[in-house]
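Re: the pair you flagged

First of the two:
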Amino acid sequence: MLRLLLIRHGQTLWNAELRYQGQTDVPLNELGRRQAEALGRRLAGETLHAVYASDLQRAVDTAAPLAAIHRLDIITEPRLRELNFGEWEGCTFEEIRQRAPAAYQAWLRTPEQFSAPGGETGAQLRTRVQAWLDEVRARHAEQTIAVVAHGGSLMTLLQITLELPSEARWKFRMTHGSLSELHLYPDGWAVLARLNDTCHLDGLTG
């Protein structure tokens, strides 16, 4: 069994301001850094064989305390990046809802087909996450690896492995700094063992 510990990166200023962040390389804010430290402490007792992270700064910096504790290098992976939101990046959710209501609804209803101007579709995100997953399953059979990425790429990973429709992404919550766990078996069977575990973040505030 391949055991994936799925970690959403810590909070950034744009997260706090409810802005589309996408592939804009926004760093962690102070709360995000404390979330990363708490996550590292939470998983200090685990046996990890590898730590993967999106190559965006907020993911790498979230992975850093965990990798340091386990004396592992961070394997940066561009295919784990967030969905590219193109011209929407930097805009708040409310600004897009008001400015482009039809496009906003299309994003909610058909995320697999929709792309913001200059961005990518959910199907394109799925293709790159699937390619990464295929390599990881071959390389890390019977191991435990940490995967530090983004809401979009982690939800897509669940969508692929649990055979869910694209709109199922709206039925899950992954808080910044949260821990989820996915078990992948050699016969292709997948089990979601835990979702959005945030007990290590208790007491942390902005």
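Second of the two:
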Amino acid sequence: MRSIFFIFSLLITQACGVYSFTGASISPEVETLSVAFFPNQANLVNPTLSQTFTEALKDQFIQQTNLNLITKGGDLHFEGEIVDYSVRPVSVTSDQTASQNRLTITVNVRFFNSVSPEKDFQQRFSRFSDFPSSENIASIEDQLVEEITQELVQNIFNKAVVNW
């Protein structure tokens, strides 16, 4: 009985073609994905951020969809640039010193859907993470960048294919 249920469930989800368990709504006509390198044009440059962000965006789509990654000209195509990478105080104590700092990353994204051009967009996505000013940014920067990058990538994925 379990085998029949499993096969039936598999056939239903495969026949639909548009639904995935991630919530992505991708037309069955869309088969390929391309992601251009996102250069870092921020005033403060983290030397690994461009590569980290670009690869995280690719990985999100590879892991969450059945799209084939190609170098350029994909049915879904992403390009853009990192436009802000900054550390600023967000909470000040009574003696005028920062008690909390905020690392912010902002990415300008251009998305093109060759199958459904009405879904194309250009938008800035920004995320941040706060940390105590007593911590040295150099010691926690990699962890913060990873967290913020994952949030950015999830938001971009949702905007492009989840249709929330």
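The chain is about 35% helix and 30% strand.

-B.
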